[in-house]
């Protein structure tokens, strides 16, 4: 055991998993930093459609860990699942490279993109839950280092997430749509490197304190060895009942969500899969209550990630269109801003490791539910800051990048309170035979959150100007408002009035001051008419949009904080 330790007191296997996950996250976040920009700038998808695809992709990415977790628990074990998943994801990134290479042929490029997304979705399902599960197995049961271990592991995730947008953005987000492919190719290379390092180092370092190989056998057989008993067989009746419930929910949500089949699939499974697990007849009363804690906290986590994951969609639009990105004569690519969260985590994660350690020694460390309530509060605070930054902002006016940097930094503090602690909580509360499967359920809540994030991103207020005004300006020959390849028929119809997205109009190039003022006035007036509604919340401008997240996350934080005392009781001594 001593040979497997380093000066920090953590097993060397933790750092093998750290590096493996770092390069996998480099691959994921490198592609994600470019994805929404690739769809809107290269394939020329509109924002609403791009947001829908983004939400469906990121939602499904976090849905498939449920499948991968089950296969690892019952059949393959963690190691095989990680290797297979990594190879599949590398293939997916290569298809994204092909999509970027043929972007001018939109039909073919779209097929390549959807194929690549499919490989990425299924590959992530095998990779993601299994590497997270192995972290906890490096330590003896009840070891107080586990929370710190997951925070260190989380640093690896975010080190990759920090490097990825900078490197992939530098080569891919150049302003030339032909260059997106190079960013995708770098993401492919990162995934290949992740798999190679894991294969070479796993046997030597990824072992238990007793020296046994971790993840070589299914978790169900590991439980049998530890408990010296055979778990109860799967109930066919329970499986059928929850299968029927899932189908009913799927059909109901399919029509309720206006035939969004992917959203219906994700949300229905988010409800049915946890129900099937909690109905397992082999669970004891204590195990069942602990699983309920995972479910309840996972529900509130949905509100966190649906707001947090705006980084890849609406906040990227905000960075591209409404943020002053000029620094010393150079324009910072919008994709670079997605590195802010990651570098802040690398900086602040050691602080949180130290903080939890100090509080733990004094028996003052907050239990997991309280930490996650604090995370939600900080998320709401971040959106409150940027909401004030854009209050009263007129169309076409850009704000200092400090507002966006402040939001990402505050969100990072919230993430450090919630995400690594959540992974640790699932690891400590889950029965061994459901270790990977319940980690999959945890990511299932993130799947629902990401799909919800795409839906919320479609509410991003897009300033518009009427087609009549555009035609009048053209007649005065002060500006040719239609970019090359843009047809008037592409104008969208809102409440009977044809409108054109405002960002297609370059106000700076309008020489006539009166014409420019008329455009802005009509533009601002149309915003009220074209307001978007969400559950009675009217979104007219950016201030309204950001305040939606303030209210959503703030209310969730308060409710979770109130429930935390009861949840701690249901954890039966696990902190």
How would you characterize the overall build of this protein?
The longest helix has 32 residues, at 106-137. Residues 1-8, 224-232, 465-491, 493-499 and 524-529 have low confidence and may be disordered. This protein starts with 11 loop residues before the first helix and ends in a 5-residue tail after the last helix. Helix 9 (236-256) packs antiparallel against helix 10 (261-278). The protein is mostly helical. Strand 6 and strand 7 form a beta hairpin. It is built from 19 helices and 9 strands. The strands form 4 sheets. Strands 5-7-6 form a 3-stranded antiparallel sheet. It is globular and about 60 Å long. It folds into 3 domains: 2-220 and 280-461 and 544-570, Growth Hormone, Chain: A, CATH 1.20.1250; 235-279; 464-537, no CATH class. It is found in: Cell membrane; Membrane. Pfam families: PTR2. Keywords: Cell membrane, Membrane, Peptide transport, Protein transport, Transmembrane, Transmembrane helix, Transport.
């Amino acid at each position: 055991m001593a040979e497997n330790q380093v000066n920090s007191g953590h097993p060397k296997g933790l750092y093998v998993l750290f590096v493996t996950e770092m390069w996998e996250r480099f691959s994921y976040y490198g592609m994600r930093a470019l994805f929404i920009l690739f769809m809107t700038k290269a394939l020329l998808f509109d924002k609403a459609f791009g947001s829908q695809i983004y939400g469906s992709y990121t939602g499904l990415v976090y849905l498939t860990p449920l499948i991968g977790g089950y296969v690892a628990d019952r059949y393959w074990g963690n190691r095989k699942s990680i290797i297979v998943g990594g190879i599949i994801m590398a293939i997916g990134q290569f298809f994204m490279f092909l999509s970027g290479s043929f972007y001018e042929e939109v039909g073919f490029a779209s097929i390549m993109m959807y194929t690549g997304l499919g490989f990425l979705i299924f590959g992530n399902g095998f990779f993601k839950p299994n590497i997270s599960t192995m972290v906890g197995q490096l330590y003896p049961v009840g070891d107080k280092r586990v929370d710190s271990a997951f925070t260190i592991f989380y640093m690896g995730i975010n080190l990759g997430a920090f490097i990825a947008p900078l490197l992939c953005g530098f080569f891919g987000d150049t302003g030339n749509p032909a260059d997106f492919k190079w960013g995708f190719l770098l993401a492919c290379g990162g995934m290949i490197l992740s798999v190679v390092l894991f294969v070479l180092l796993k046997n030597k370092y990824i072992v238990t304190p007793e020296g046994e190989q971790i993840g070589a056998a299914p978790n169900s057989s590991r439980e049998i060895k530890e408990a010296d008993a055979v778990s109860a067989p799967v109930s066919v009746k329970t499986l059928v009942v929850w299968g029927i419930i899932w189908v009913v929910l799927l059909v109901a949500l399919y029509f309720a969500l206006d035939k969004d089949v992917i959203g219906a699939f994700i949300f229905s499974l988010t409800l049915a899969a946890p129900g099937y697990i909690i109905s397992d007849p082999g669970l004891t009363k204590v195990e069942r209550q602990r699983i309920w804690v995972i479910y309840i906290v996972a529900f509130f986590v949905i509100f966190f990630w649906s707001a947090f994951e705006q980084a890849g969609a609406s906040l990227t639009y905000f960075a591209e269109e409404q943020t002053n990105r000029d620094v010393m004569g150079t324009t910072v690519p919008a994709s670079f801003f997605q590195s802010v969260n990651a570098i802040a985590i690398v900086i602040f994660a050691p602080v949180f490791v130290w903080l939890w350690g100090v509080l733990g020694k004094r028996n003052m460390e907050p239990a997991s539910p309280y930490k996650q309530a604090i995370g939600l509060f900080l998320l709401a605070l971040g959106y409150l800051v940027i909401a004030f930054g854009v209050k009263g902002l007129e169309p076409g006016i850009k704000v200092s990048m400090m507002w966006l940097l402040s939001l990402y930094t505050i969100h990072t503090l919230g993430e450090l309170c919630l995400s690594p602690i959540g992974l640790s909580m699932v690891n400590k509360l889950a029965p061994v035979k459901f270790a990977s499967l319940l980690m999959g359920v945890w990511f299932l809540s993130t799947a629902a959150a990401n799909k919800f994030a795409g839906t919320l991103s479609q509410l991003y207020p897009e300033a518009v100007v009427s087609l009549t005004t555009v035609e009048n300006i053209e007649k005065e020959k002060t500006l040719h408002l239609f970019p090359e390849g843009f047809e008037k028929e592409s104008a969208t119809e809102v409440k009977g009035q044809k409108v054109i997205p405002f960002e297609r109009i370059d106000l700076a190039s309008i020489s006539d001051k009166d014409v420019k003022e008329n455009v802005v006035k009509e533009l601002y007036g149309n915003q009220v008419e074209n307001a978007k509604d969400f559950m009675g919340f009217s979104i007219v401008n950016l201030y309204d949009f950001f305040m939606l997240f303030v209210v959503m996350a703030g209310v969730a934080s308060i409710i979770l904080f109130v429930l935390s005392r009861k949840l701690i009781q249901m954890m039966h001594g696990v902190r």
